[in-house]
Amino acid sequence: MADFLTDIKTLRERARNQIGRGPVTDAYGADLPRVLQVLNEALATEIVCVLRYKRHYYTATGLYSEPVAAEFLEHAQEEQTHADKLAQRIAQLGGEPDFDPDTLSSRSHTPYDASGDLIEMIKEDLIAERVAVASYTEICQWLGDKDPTTRRVFEELLAQEEEHADDLRGLLERIPKDRPVD
Asked: Ferritin-like diiron domain spans which residues (predicted)?
């Protein structure tokens, strides 16, 4: 057995004595209150993204709106899944997911958008996805090996946010610049 491993007896005693801490053991290396705050900020971000995509889905109009609206709806559903994963991780760590509607927009990394023009909707959603990509990349780097489970949650979200950004860029490229007025 390597020198850096805690002996089994000590591990068992700690597990029994700290049973109320759930999955957070002495091996947890991150700043738990800060991790919970970051998770709740990401939760707010995902909820605002769901709301923005849903609004864009219901209000997209014009000649090119049908495939774009379908993409908005798909993204809204995926962002909701992200929010659920974040809320679940917060609860696992002993925190409380913050769904307070009064503070969602101030805690979100991305703003809500009420654009009426189809191109502007896509652009605003692409900007929001790029903010999420940058933010989640920084969070993954910050977590490092201190909380590998939370880091993996963010890595999974990051991969999908990158996919969303690519989808939106593709939509922008397919809509003619001289399209008819919506």
From this structure: 29-179
Cα separation, 115 vs 110, in Å, equals: 15
Residue type, 180: P
| Residues that constitute the known binding site | 46, 82, 129, 161, 164
Mind listing the pLDDT tens digit for each residue in 75-109? 999 999 999 999 999 999 999 999 999 999 999 99
Q: Residues 15, 6: contact at Cβ < 8 Å?
A: no
Domain that holds residue 36: 30-174
The CA distances from residue 179 to 118, 153, 175, in Å, are: 11, 40, 7
Beta-carbon neighbour count of residue 60 at 10 Å?
24
- In this structure, is residue 11 part of a structural domain? no
Residues contributing to the annotated binding site for Fe cation: 46, 82, 129, 161, 164
Q: Is residue 146 situated within a structural domain?
A: yes
The verdict on residue 125 lying in a domain is: yes
Do 29 and 145 contact (CB within 8 A), yes or no?
yes
| pLDDT at residue 180 in the model | 53
Number of domains in the chain: 1
Q: How far apart are CA 121 and CA 139, in angstroms?
A: 27
Copy the structure tokens of residue 23: 């999955």
Quick one: pLDDT at residue 179? 54
CATH of the domain at 132: 1.20.1260.10
- Global pTM reads 0.88
In a domain, residue 179? The reply is: no
